[in-house]
């Protein structure tokens, strides 16, 4: 599954949200390569969404940390919690079924961050 996420670049936000939740739920996002693939997809999705532009900086920091070769679990934990907060905030003003999906994504980010904190 490591390269499947790059296939979602042009797909809808819902598809990318679902793919990210699935990766975290299955524990596949523990791989730095998997995380980098998801981040690339999120950059593509967020570049046209002014409301989500605040997520670009923490995603860039997360990308840099994953590319460092020896990512800090504490730094990853903090960045994932920041992204979870922002995801849930964006979800409050989203339309359709996106609020519940974004809330689920925020929870998946928090769960993964808490897993990292137990290994710090």
Structure explained in plain terms:
The protein is mainly α. It has five helices and no strands. Helix 1 packs parallel to helix 5, helix 2 packs antiparallel against helix 3 and helix 3 runs antiparallel to helix 4. It starts with 12 loop residues before the first helix and ends with a helix. The N terminus is likely disordered.
Task: Supply the key terms.
120 residues, mainly alpha, 5 helices, 67% helix, globular, disordered N terminus
Brief write-up:
By secondary structure, this protein is mostly helical.
SS-derived structural category: mainly alpha
What's the Cα radius of gyration?
A: 13 Å
Order of helices and strands: HHHHH
The best one-word shape is globular
How large is the count of helical segments? 5
Biggest sheet overview: none
- Report the end-to-end length measured between terminal Cα atoms: 27 Å
Q: Say how many strands there are.
A: 0
Indicate the low-confidence ranges by residue numbers. 1-11
> What does the average pLDDT come to?
81
Helix content: 55-70%
Work out the strand percent. under 5%
Number of structural units classed as domains: 1
Write the layout of secondary structure elements.
Layout: H1 13-25, H2 32-46, H3 56-67, H4 73-92, H5 98-117
């Amino acid at each position: 599954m490591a390269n499947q996420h790059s296939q979602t670049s042009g797909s809808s936000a819902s598809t990318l949200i679902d793919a990210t939740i699935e990766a975290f739920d299955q524990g596949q996002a523990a791989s730095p390569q998997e995380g980098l693939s998801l981040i690339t997809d999120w950059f593509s999705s967020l570049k046209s969404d002014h409301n989500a532009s605040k997520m670009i900086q923490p995603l860039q920091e997360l990308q840099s940390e994953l590319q460092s070769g020896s990512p800090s679990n504490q730094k990853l934990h903090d960045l994932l919690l920041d992204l979870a907060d922002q995801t849930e905030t964006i979800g409050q003003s989203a339309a359709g079924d996106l609020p519940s999906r974004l809330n689920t994504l925020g929870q998946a980010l928090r769960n993964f961050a808490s897993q990292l904190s137990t290994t710090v």
